[in-house]
Design goal:
By secondary structure, the chain is an all-alpha fold. The protein has one domain.
Length: 204
C-alpha cells in the first residue's frame, strides 16, 4: 500500500550554498581581524616625529619662560599628531590594512585614554605651578598608551612603550632641570631609534 502523502516527514529546505559560503567567509574574516596584529605603525613616520621632537627640544630649551616652553611642546604635539596620522594612513593603504576596524581600532582605543589623561593633567598641573612634573608625566602616559595599544601590534611596539615609561620614571626622580633633556631623549631619540627598526623590519 502506498503511504499517504500527508504522513510523510517534511524536512526544512537546506539553506542555499551561497548563504553558507558567505557566513563562513564572514566568520573567517572576523576571526582574522581579532587575531591579527596592526602592522601599519609607520617606522619612517616615527623617525620624522623624533626629528621634529629634537628640534622642539632645542627651541624649548631657549625659551625664557615656562609658558613659552609649554607652547613649544604643545605645537610639537600637534605636528607629531599630524605626521602620525598621515604616515599611518599612508602605510595602511600600502599594505591594504583597514585603519579603524579589527586591530587598528583596538590599537587606537588602547592608546587614546592615557593621552587624554595626560592632556587633562597638563591643564591641572600647569594651573597649580607643578611644571617640573610635566616631562615625566608626558613620557610615562605616552609610554603606557603605546604599551596598551601596542598589545595589538607587532612585538617591538610595546617594547618601545616600556622604554618611554623607563625614561619617564627616571625623569620623575631626576633633576627638574633635566626635564627638557629627558623629553629630547624620549620623544626624540626613542622615536628615531625604534622608527628605524620598525621601518626596516616591518616595511616602512
Amino acid at each position: 500500500m502506498a503511504a499517504d502523502p500527508r504522513t510523510r516527514m517534511r524536512f526544512p529546505e537546506p539553506p542555499a550554498l551561497d548563504d553558507h559560503a558567505m557566513e563562513d567567509l564572514r566568520f573567517i574574516r572576523e576571526t582574522m581581524e581579532r587575531s591579527a596584529s596592526f602592522t601599519a605603525i609607520p617606522g619612517w613616520g616615527g623617525v620624522m616625529i623624533g626629528a621634529t621632537a629634537l628640534a622642539a627640544a632645542f627651541v624649548a630649551s631657549r625659551q625664557p619662560v615656562t609658558r613659552d616652553w609649554l607652547v613649544t611642546w604643545f605645537v610639537e604635539g600637534l605636528v607629531a599628531l599630524a605626521i602620525a596620522g598621515w604616515a599611518t594612513h599612508r602605510k595602511a593603504r600600502a599594505v591594504s590594512i583597514p585603519l579603524f576596524s579589527g586591530p587598528g581600532k583596538k590599537f587606537a582605543i588602547g592608546l587614546a585614554p592615557p593621552l587624554l589623561a595626560g592632556a587633562l593633567l597638563t591643564v591641572v598641573l600647569y594651573r597649580g605651578g607643578f611644571f617640573s612634573i610635566l616631562p615625566a608625566m608626558w613620557l610615562l602616559l605616552y609610554g603606557a598608551g603605546v604599551v596598551t595599544g601596542g598589545a595589538f601590534s607587532v612585538k617591538i611596539v610595546p617594547v618601545m612603550g616600556m622604554c618611554f615609561m623607563l625614561v619617564g620614571a627616571v625623569a620623575l626622580f631626576g633633576p627638574a632641570a633635566w626635564g627638557n633633556a629627558f623629553m629630547a631623549a624620549g620623544f626624540g631619540g626613542l622615536h628615531v631609534l625604534f622608527g628605524i627598526v620598525i621601518a626596516r623590519r616591518y616595511g616602512g
